[in-house]
Amino acid sequence: MGYHTGVDFEILPGEENTDVAVKAMNDGVVLQKRFASGYGGVIVVSSMVDNQPVTIVYGHLRLSSIQAKVGDKIKAGETIGFLGNGCSKETDGERKHLHLSIHKGTEVNIRGYVKSKELLNDWVDPCLYLKQ
Ligand SMILES: [Zn+2]
Question: How far apart are CA 119 and CA 22, in angstroms?
Answer without folding.
Answer: 27
